[in-house]
């Protein structure tokens, strides 16, 4: 296994972009969600990128895959929280669809990268 430079991985770069968009979005949530959805979505978005970078340090693809699974799980968790925001009318349909497309594209790319690691072994 070769170690990956996480900063060069497109999935990490896109996860970092999602963090930026997430923080802009969560700043618009109601004040009473400061310690609810806002905090959870912020932590969750950071977790996506953090797990990718952590996994890149692992000695084996098997261990890297575990971190990527965790990252993917955080991406699905974040999408669910976005859906909650939409259902509670905290976000317009246009912004919801834009963010939903972004996270779903990232989920797909993480999954494809995982498949590549599995097929390389």
Main attributes of the structure:
single chain, 121 residues, de novo design (two linked rop proteins)
Fold and architecture overview:
With 121 residues, this protein is mainly alpha-helical. It has one domain: de novo design (two linked rop proteins). Helices cover 75% and strands 0% of the residues. The protein is built from four helices and no strands. Helix 1 runs antiparallel to helix 2. The radius of gyration is 15 Å and the shape is elongated. The mean pLDDT is 95.
CATH class: Mainly Alpha
CATH topology: de novo design (two linked rop proteins)
Helix content: over 70%
| DSSP, total strands | 0
Q: Whole-Å distance between the termini?
A: 9 Å
- H/E element string? HHHH
- Domain module count: 1
Largest sheet, described in full? none
Strand content: under 5%
Radius of gyration from the alpha-carbon trace, in angstroms? 15 Å
Please, what is the CATH homologous superfamily?
23S rRNA-intervening sequence
* Alpha-beta content class: mainly alpha
